[in-house]
């Protein structure tokens, strides 16, 4: 569920700060090192939050990048890709 929450947030333009925990796949959504914090070090989380607060121009650019990045997870695109996959399999079976 946390991955879906992250997708919802980034599709709205929020810039995430995500844990690098090996027990979570959400860290795959981190586009830069400043979007990822060391799950064993709370101060790293604080530093990453401070980074985005102190760099509003970079945050604004990251927001745009995340909105664009999130489009690949839109349901319409996923359905189109799935349909293409099915068509490829059907075409291969016909050969």
Characterization of this structure:
It is a single chain. With 95 residues, the chain is mainly α. The chain has a single domain (2-94), classed as Glycogen Phosphorylase B (Rossmann fold), CATH 3.40.50.2000. The protein is 61% helix and 4% strand. Strands 1-2 form a two-stranded parallel sheet. The longest helix has 20 residues, at 75-94. The radius of gyration is 17 Å and the shape is elongated. 12% of the residues are buried. The mean pLDDT is 93.
CATH architectural type:
3-Layer(aba) Sandwich
Major sheet strand order: 1-2
What is the CATH fold-level name?
Rossmann fold
Count up the helices.
4
Number of strands: 2
- Percent in strands: under 5%
Task: Name the descriptors.
Rossmann fold, 4 helices, mainly alpha, elongated, 95 residues, 61% helix, two-stranded parallel ribbon
